[in-house]
Amino acid sequence: MKISQKIITNLKSGGADFFLSVPCKLLANMITILENDKNIYYSAIPREEEGMGICAGAYLGNKLPCIMMQNTGIGNSVNSIVSLLQLYQMPVVFLISYRGTPGEPVGAQGGMASITEDLLNTLRIPMLHCNTEKDLDKISTFTNHAKVIESPVAVLCNFNLMKDD
Amino acid sequence: MMNRFELLNLLQDSIQDELVVCNIGLPSQELYKINDRPNYFYMLGSMGLSSSIGLGLSLAVEKNVISIDGDGSVLMNMNTLATIGNRAPSNYTLLIIDNGSYGSTGDQKTFTNERTSLKNVAIGAGCHNVVECSGEETNENLQKALEDKDNAYVIISKIKSGNVPIKPIPLNAVTIRDRFRKEIGLVPYL
Questions:
Q1: Among residues A33, A87, A163, B88, which is most buried (max CB within 10 A)?
Q2: Residues on chain A touching B54 (C-beta within 8 angstroms)
Q3: CATH class of B4-184
């Protein structure tokens, strides 16, 4: 719970005030924290691509949205990232549980993991890698950076960082 | 039966300062041609997401929000009807212009021409106030939805397919974004 709490605290101090999630086991504690937080908006949603649309609307209404999802969700959302968020220059924070990184027990997650960073590079989305607890201190500044550059940014939380939280 | 251009024309009687998110392609181009306004957000990409963008906006602002969507686009993003059914606030209205065809790509038929009922899908997804009506009845239903401060609505307006000759919208995306946000009364972040 300590790692999850630190991530949420840093996202909020960076300005994020509107949260969506498509569930992941590694995000479960963060979801519990958000469900009990009366100071922000939070909802679970069925699919990441739809979430990009909801985030775009929330941004138009002056929120700084954060969508929490597995790295697989980037694959589900490529067109909406390019032809909505980037076309209109909309800041959104992607908080990504990076499945398929070392420690991952499910072999099938390896495929999307092997292309996740290339995909984000191709999309020109700035990445913050979180491998240790200390890395989490950078999330606040990185969240604010999304607003400054008016662009989506991606925070990648490795499996081993999250698994024992 | 009227076509989409005629319906969008008619809607100008109902829409005042409501925030409108309009579907990609011909619907936005026709709306632009009929009556361009800064409170119209023209969606230039991301087919399927007009309903979702409007939902996110309605969760962030107090004003009434209308998502104008199409049957083909809703079929592409049907999961969002479940989100709308469970989460849409009372200032949200989804207006689905159902002409049974993919108008912008050459009027190929959609499944609403066959066995699919978006009314039944929306109800099954959890939406409460779901109205299916003709193009002529759309304004009265939209007015009711906008005046009701306690409920979100899904209106499915059944019209015939067909398009008018039209050009792409001569506005870039960031211009559309900025004038829309200014209309809401927001200053830019920086």
A1: B88
A2: 57
A3: alpha beta
